[in-house]
Design brief:
The protein is α/β, with parallel strands linked by helices. Helix content is about 55%, strand content about 15%. The chain is built from 10 helices and 7 strands. A hairpin with a 2-residue loop joins strand 4 and strand 5. Helix 7 crosses helix 10.
Length: about 220
């Protein structure tokens, strides 16, 4: 870890109060780390970044007003010196690479031990990437190959499309999705059509079945 006289400031962004409380408890056991703020939404997080100037942000995938990867992209664009670690309940195979592309330097599942969480924080604070062995193998293979390997259909979805696909799998309709993501129903319907086209799906019922099955396998 870099040597400094004051603790590293960490901003926690998660829409579940108990998760924020748990992460805070883990972090505060280490005198060289401190929690400088907590947020449940993208808007709150962006305001706290401006106010507190954190060294590191811990970001969840699902937030009150949108997607954690969209937040990561905004932070990367406006505050490039702020390091980011995505800590999510989703498998690394789903969002790990997307998190790195969005600007995060690491990805960790929420089920990992306290020691692993602190290890990930310290590695990212040093300016190094923290990813699991599966994603490491994939990235190394792609680099050695010199080109993108064939992607499965899900990888063709944008971050927003994948988020909507997940919400469809949870049983949410277009109106509920639009309300939660602060989008128009027309925009959500356009995303649904794009998802169907990319996945080779012909109708809404088939889309719902595919989304439910995908969520059961990957949620």
């Amino acid at each position: 870890m870099p040597s400094r006289s004051v603790p590293f400031k960490i901003l926690i962004v998660d829409d579940h109060p108990m998760v924020r409380e748990g992460l805070t408890f883990r972090i505060l056991n280490h005198p060289d780390l401190e929690v400088c703020g907590e947020a449940a939404s993208k808007d709150e997080a962006m305001e706290l970044v401006k106010q507190t100037k954190p060294d590191l942000m811990i970001i969840d995938i699902t937030l009150k007003d949108g997607h954690g990867l969209e937040l990561a992209k905004q932070v990367k664009s406006r505050y490039p010196s702020v390091k980011m670690l995505v800590v999510s309940g989703f498998q690394e195979s789903l969002y790990g690479e997307r998190a790195l592309r969005a600007g995060a330097m690491g990805y960790l599942n929420k089920q990992e031990s306290n020691e692993k969480v602190i290890e990930a924080i310290r590695i990212v604070l040093k300016g190094e990437r923290f990813v699991g062995p599966e994603l490491t193998r994939r990235l190394v293979a792609r680099a050695l190959d010199g080109r993108d390997q064939a992607k499965d259909s899900i990888e063709l979805l944008t971050d927003r499309e994948l988020e909507i696909f997940r919400m469809i799998g949870e049983g949410q309709g277009s109106s509920a999705i639009a309300s939660q993501l602060v989008l128009s129903s027309h925009t959500v319907d356009t995303h649904r059509e794009n998802i169907k086209r990319k996945l080779g799906i012909s109708n809404a019922a088939e889309l719902s079945r595919a989304a439910v099955q995908w969520l059961l396998e990957n949620g």
